[in-house]
Task: inverse folding
């Protein structure tokens, strides 16, 4: 590198490349699309959970009238689990009667002489 | 490049370091990217892409961040050129350089001459003149020997001087007056 080279280098340095536009600020960089998408998914998930929580409340337990209880005791329709629970709370005697009725229909009988359980049962 | 830039090297650069590098080398990098891309906006986009990735810490930089950034800008610009539909050259009246004495004609001439240089020579000139890198640093950056870089730079300077000397002479005459 001689003096002419250095002078020519200095001459070239007089030409300034155009400054590019500024980089975006940190906040704008932080909110990049991937993070926005993740935030959107989170919001939708939380919203869905909240919606289900408020709209799927436990249904009110129907109050059984004495007539219905009597009807139940006759053992015609099958009670739901909620109705069984409610019956136990309201009228334990009616529950007992319903259980006896149900057991007669759904459990194997011991009293039938042709039943295998009858043969196995101890006298 | 100097000690300041060396101090900025590391596995992950802080945002302030990245911004400092952008301030120092951004203009030269845009000039460099213009070698590969058809217009200034595309060149700026390529440089921005690299710096935004650095700011988001998506990439790790090696020991010499400036060299790495030059490589990254080059690759990004080449990718952009491949995927670009536009193939038009840089508009003739679109000035990449500004001259201290507002010599627009000289600025356009320099721009044209640079675009006509072989890529390796143009790279050496941009790194040396507008990024302030030493020939040793350019050799490391471009992964060639110091002699090769020195030869490339010398050839480039000769070509530029042959065409730019009238403007240099004019300036000296004006300076004497």
Result:
């Amino acid at each position: 590198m001689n003096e002419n080279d250095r002078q020519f280098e200095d001459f070239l340095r007089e030409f300034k490349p155009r400054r590019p536009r500024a980089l975006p600020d940190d906040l704008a960089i932080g909110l990049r699309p991937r993070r926005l998408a993740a935030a959107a998914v989170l919001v939708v998930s939380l919203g869905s959970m909240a919606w289900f929580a408020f709209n799927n409340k436990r249904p009110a337990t129907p109050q059984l009238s004495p007539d219905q209880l009597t009807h139940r005791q006759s053992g015609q329709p099958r009670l739901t689990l909620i109705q069984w629970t409610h019956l136990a709370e309201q009228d334990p005697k009616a529950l007992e009667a319903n259980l006896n009725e149900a057991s007669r229909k759904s459990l194997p009988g011991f009293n039938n002489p042709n039943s295998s359980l009858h043969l196995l049962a101890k006298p | 490049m100097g000690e300041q830039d060396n101090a900025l090297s590391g596995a992950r650069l802080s945002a302030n370091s990245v911004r400092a590098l952008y301030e120092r080398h951004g203009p030269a990098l845009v000039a460099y990217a213009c070698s590969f891309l058809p217009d200034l906006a595309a060149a700026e986009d390529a440089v921005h892409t690299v710096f935004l990735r650095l700011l988001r810490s998506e990439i790790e930089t090696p020991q010499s961040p400036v060299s790495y950034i030059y490589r990254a800008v080059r690759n990004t610009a080449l990718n952009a050129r491949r995927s670009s539909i536009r193939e038009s050259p840089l508009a003739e009246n679109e000035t990449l350089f500004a001259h201290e004495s507002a010599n627009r004609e000289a600025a356009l001439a320099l721009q044209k001459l640079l675009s006509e240089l072989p890529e390796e020579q143009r790279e050496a000139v941009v790194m040396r003149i507008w990024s302030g890198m030493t020939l040793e640093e350019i050799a490391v950056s471009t992964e060639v020997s110091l002699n090769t870089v020195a030869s490339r730079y010398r050839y480039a300077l000769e070509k530029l001087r042959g065409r730019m000397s009238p403007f240099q002479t004019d300036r000296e005459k004006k300076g004497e007056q």
Summary: The CA atoms of residues 113 and 163 of chain B lie 8 Å apart. Helices of chain B lie at 2-7, 15-33, 40-55, 65-83, 104-116, 119-130, 135-142, 146-176. Residues 2-176 of chain B form one domain. Chain B has one domain: 2-176.
